[in-house]
Amino acid sequence: MANAHYHNIPTEAIDEINTLVPQGAELKSIAFTNDGGFAIIVGKNGYSTNNIPSEALNILSTLHKQESTINSIAFTPDGEWVIVYNGYGAYWSDNLPEDVKNEILRLNQLQLNINIIAFTRSGGWVIINDDNGFNTKNIPSELLDRIVTLNKECKTINSIAFTNDEGWVLLHSGNSYSYIGIPQEAVDAIMKDLISGFNYANIAITPSNGWVLLNNRDPFLVMQLQQAEIYGMQMRIIDTGRQTQSLINSYIGY
Question: pTM here?
Answer without folding.
Answer: 0.84
